[in-house]
Amino acid sequence: MDRQRVGAVCAIGIALVCLAYLLAVPLGLVPADSRWQMHEVVLVAVLLAGAAFAASSYSIRDFTVGSAGISARLDRTEERQRRLEDELHALRMALSGVVTRFEWDLLRLVAAEGPAMVRFRQDMKLQREVERLDAMGFLAPLDPRGLNAIVEDHGQEGKEFDLKHYVAVTDAGREYLRLRDQFLG
User: Which domains, from first to last, does the chain contain?
Assistant: First the structure.
């Protein structure tokens, strides 16, 4: 039996005993000299609170007894930790699979300071990568002719050119790079 179930059973048991006692007092079943004193009532209340706490998914984060009284900070650490780890893993997987390694390199090149020197390839690989990054909203064309301007201007040359004359990184592209660097290193 796990901690939460044991705590729930204890809380229910203590609550039932307390209810039975509270019903027995006005019915005259508990003699006046046998009634709980204040310290006993406080003890039962503390036991009930402790059992209820054990039944919950909270854990004590910080407990302080001082001149200001008693204070405790509670946290759902285990459950929250597991959920955050799962979400982080899912985010890492999503970020790593959004773009290929080559598209990521190209996006970083365009986002970096200075020129983004690339070479047009006859197999159209560069063009496909740029078009895919544009379709995802990570790059935006600057030339009025759109992305076709790259092929028109450099499709036959095979010389290096500055890709920043044709595309710019969007805010979404910069955010993607920031998140990927943050979560994937």
Answer: 3-79 (no CATH), 99-184 (1.10.10)
pLDDT tens digit string along 77-123?
Answer: 667 778 888 888 787 777 777 889 999 999 999 999 999 999 988 88
How far is Cα 184 from Cα 96, in angstroms, rounded to an integer?
Answer: 8
Strands 167-169 and 139-141: antiparallel
Stated pTM of the model: 0.56
Phi, psi of 159 (to 5 degrees): -95, 160
- The continuous run of DSSP H or E covering 54 comes out as helix 38-55
Cβ contact 96:138 at 8 Å: no
Token look-up 């943050």 returns: 182
